[in-house]
Amino acid sequence: MSAWSHALLGALICVGLLVVMPLGLRLVAAPGLTLVHRLWFAAAVPAAASVWLPRGWLAAVSAAAYLPAAAALLLSAGRVVGAGHGRLPGPRAVAVATALAAPSVAGCALVAERAGIRLFGFELDVLALTVAHFHYAGFAAALVAGLVCTVDGDGPAGRVAALCVPAGVAVVFAGFFTSEWVELAGAAVLTAGMWLVGWLTWRRARAGAATRGLLVTSALTLAATMVLALDWALGQAAGLPHLPVSWMVATHGLANALGFALCGLVAWRRLGVRAGWR
Fold first, then answer.
1. Quick check: 45 and 94 in contact, CB under 8 A?
2. pLDDT value at position 103?
3. Residue 22 sits in which domain range?
């Protein structure tokens, strides 16, 4: 990646840590989050600062401050999944648990990338992109899927969205370790889920003018950015022309971070909706 795309990616990671995560966590009705809310910035500020430090032990130690918070969220995700007492978790629970588990992947990738360690053999740029992906495509997207499922009253469309987004994230993640065709399949499932989330979000755009504008922006952003995601995944798998990573960060990444995640979460906050998990 170029120097400007590295800087932009770093800024998006900071927005994810310092704005999107604390804003989104306020929309989650799940056990064990009170202490995480109170201490969030004690973990997130050093992690965000690490992005701007030279790679090395100091940056890695600063990034590691995020790991306890991510571990607490992962524990909360386990409680959500286990709340069914042996029954399979419902779609809302799957979406909420995915959102809460995603920061643990982002945190591990951040520490490794800041330390200059090629975790599982991945390039350092890939690890940096993973940090951003698991805050936006992981946490924010799964959370919004849980929110639309909640307000949809567990209707069929909401349930499908709440399952497709986590499934797409999981298959894309598996594609990192297997093949680009698996990653393409995951991108297709994730795109279907995100478009469904966008449509359900559009249907909710009946609130006040400001909230309606935020919801419409969030929905329309998904319609465009997920085309870019599919195009990139197809290009990687089939060897077809596609945007380079630097331009994906500047288009798909920037639009999803600000247009989808930030606008969407602010709108849901204004609506006073929280993602249920039962």
1. no
2. 96
3. 3-271
Query: Taking the CB of residue 236, how many other CB atoms lie within 10 A of it?
Result: 16
Position 45 pLDDT exceeds 60: yes
Q: Which residues contact 145 (CB under 8 A, 6 or more apart)?
A: 95, 161, 162, 164, 165, 166, 193, 197
Q: How many domains does the chain have?
A: 1
Instruction: Give Dmax over CA atoms of the chain in angstroms.
Output: 50
User: What 3-state DSSP class applies to 53?
Assistant: coil
> Is residue 226 in a domain?
yes
Distances (CA, A) of 149 to 96, 205, 237, 277: 10, 15, 32, 10
Q: Which residues, 6+ apart, have CB-to-CB distance to 117 below 8 Å?
A: none
Q: Sign of the CA dihedral 222, 225, 231, 234? A: negative
The structure's pTM equals 0.91
Distances (CA, A) of 13 to 77, 79, 242, 252: 22, 27, 24, 14
State both tokens at 171: 């298959």
pLDDT tens digits, 92-141: 889 999 999 999 999 999 999 999 999 999 899 999 999 999 999 899 99
Structure tokens at 250: 């500047």
Please report whether residue 277 resides in a domain. Answer: no
Q: Which two tokens stand for residue 22?
A: 């604390």
Residue 193, both tokens: 């889920």
What are the tokens at 88?
């399979």
